[in-house]
Amino acid sequence: MADRDAVVGLLDRTLRIREIKDTSCNGLQVQGAAEVRRVGLAVDACLEAYEKAAAAGCQMVIAHHGLIWTGLTSVSGRNYQHLRFLIEHEMNLYAAHLPLDLHEEYGNNIALARILELSDIQPFGDYHGLLIGYRGVLPQPAAPQEIADRLAAQIGGQPIVLQNGRELVRRVGIVSGGAGDMIEQATAAGLDCYITGEPMHFCYQLSRELGGNVIFLGHYHSEQLGVQALGRLLTEKLGLESVFLEIGAFTAGGGNRD
Ligand SMILES: [Zn+2]
Fold first, then answer.
1. 97, 121, 165, 179: least buried by Cβ within 10 Å?
2. Per residue in 187-200, pLDDT tens?
3. Is the pLDDT of residue 217 over 90?
4. What distance in angstroms lies between residue 198's CA and the mean position of ligand 1's atoms?
5. Strand positions, DSSP E, the chain
6. Could you give phi then psi for residue 27, rounded to 5 degrees?
7. Cα 175 to ligand 1 centroid, rounded to whole Å
8. pLDDT tier at 251 (50, 70, 90 boundaries)?
């Protein structure tokens, strides 16, 4: 059991939540119970996640895609339904979007880099002046399909592979979520293979024309590991329990551009 403010303080400091500019209003988005014993970890703030969190006895949901983004103008309709559920169940909602993508220890992208045992890991993927992903070198050359299979064995989903570059690759770049437009950055940086989440329409011809290999893991599947790492952090530092809330998503992409 921990005080909510202690949980929020630890997350805010670890993720440098106030320093990183984002369209997501990161941090504690909805205040709930003052004491937290168990947290629910979800990719998306959605009713399905809140219901599962309440059923599992959680006092807080930590979501990568939160409820409140720049541009929230009205608490009606779907926003109202979300807030009503959260407030009625005294459920805290904490959101961490870009701060969780880019984090060097707990982030979505570093977690994928670790599965592939990359070496010489460096920040990669410029998003409005912020490097939100990582690049590195595989221990051995591998076919893009092998890399996709290795990742899917850990994170699930059905990756889509566009094989338009070399058959065996070593230098890879990773930016989770909806970052298909960074194919150009990957080829410009001399990477043999680019890994992202969501297969957007324009990526197909872009990959062909640039001659780049691209692996799409699915937006959801590429962004599960960050919140799971935060669960381990909260267990280690504050003794909290955590549960990953499996929710519905496209198996290989789709959804919004976050
Ligand atoms: Zn995302």
1. 121
2. 999 999 999 999 99
3. yes
4. 9
5. 2-3, 27-30, 35-36, 38-44, 60-65, 92-95, 119-127, 130-142, 160-162, 169-175, 193-196, 213-216, 241-244
6. 110, -160
7. 10
8. confident
Question: How many angstroms is it from 248 CA to the middle of ligand 1?
Answer: 14
Q: Which CATH number fits domain 101-222: 3.40.50.620, 3.40.50.2000, 3.40.1390.30, 3.30.300.30?
A: 3.40.1390.30
* Domain 101-222 in the same topology as domain 2-97+226-244: yes
In tens, the pLDDT along 122-176 reads 999 999 999 999 999 999 999 999 999 999 999 999 999 999 999 999 999 999 9
Cα of 75 vs centre of ligand 1, distance in Å, is 23
CA 160 – ligand 1 centroid, Å:
17
